[in-house]
Amino acid sequence: MYLMPTLTLSTSPAPLILEASRESQVCYVLLIVQASVTGAAPSRPVNWALVADVSRSMRIPIVDETQFRSLLRTGSAQEMLVDGVPVWQLSGSVPQEVRDTASSALDYVVRALHTIVERLDHHDRLALVVFADHALLLIPGMVGADRVTLVRAIERLPGLNLGDGTNLADGIALALNQIRANRDGRCADRIILLTDGFTRDSAACLALADQAADEHIAITTIGLGGEFQDDLLTAIADRSGGHALFLKRVSAIPRAVSAELETVRAAAVSAVTIAIAPQRGVQLRRVTRMRPALALLAEPTGAAAMDVTQVSLGDLAAGTPVTLLLEFLVPAANPGPLWIAGVAARSSGARLADTDIRAAVTHHAPPLSHDVRAAAARSMAARLMRRATTASDPAEAARLMRAAAARFDDFGEQALAAAAREQASAFEHGARIAGIATRELTYATRRLGEVS
Q: What is the domain extent for residue 302?
């Protein structure tokens, strides 16, 4: 039986009360988007494309703890300082037995693909795009029933040589074309891209993410290790409504890819977008997703701040609300009613819910509620941290990072605060920040949206 999913929109605080003022004032509103279905919804078939980096760095063998201890005993690995950061460097030949048993990131991608093929249903479609200097379509959107052909194509993966570069944009473009070619209206559409490096053309990647969002195709990104572009991968995911994942260990690739497949299958409402239309004189300054992962989704400027702003939320699971923090600049107002904005929610273009954000303007408005104040403060802390990691001046980067650390302390996030201060100290002493530490801090900050 086909079950009709529903979306509900609610706001906090409710009712919204603002202080009468002769000047413009900032107004914060939490928008909660909730999906639900009645009964047990059937699992949806999936039309998806995996975009995998096959450059040289993905083929480097990664030793486990036992193998590493073997290298230490033979003198093949030694500790040294690079820009004040302790690192291990190979100083001799690696024993053949270690070479034969150590797996690379690409080996784990192959394992993940084998696991996925085993889980594909007859109506699922899987496309595989690989890229390095250029992109190649290895599997052209084949149905799950073609398991033998799929496995044979996957086995070709380790033997490919597409160069040493990282041309992510070509890979995304090929994947989008495959999703478009195999769409049938019944399947959930998803792209998963996986990389450990820096791409040539970030602007092209972001433009493709915007195209994907316009076509209701979510892109989930998986960054490996400590040398990928976390700002680019998180932006691709956030713009298109996908998830942004960081894997410190490549052995987690199969589990992460499998979990993403199951998440797509379980979605109650797919390809959800939210349109926010401020009323005349009201400016929308910022849209920040607080749950499930803190991320700045929109920051319109100029005339765009007073126009309709649309953000992609991707697929929504039943019972797992998405919370957005909306920040408005409202004009001077006398006591009375004030219409701030209209909000509409759509799924794959079909309108499912709408609501108005209205306020009562009085001479004695209450202070901001705890949940709104906490959301605004955490959003600010995340922006401070991001500005610090992208600042070109080390002194300014250190100042911003220490400011973020102070905010983390206020939330009781001592581990985050300590990590931020360590990076601030490194900025001040001109040391190079370890990639893993930077990525861990970036992705940990995205978890700040959960307010107790």
A: 6-41+271-366
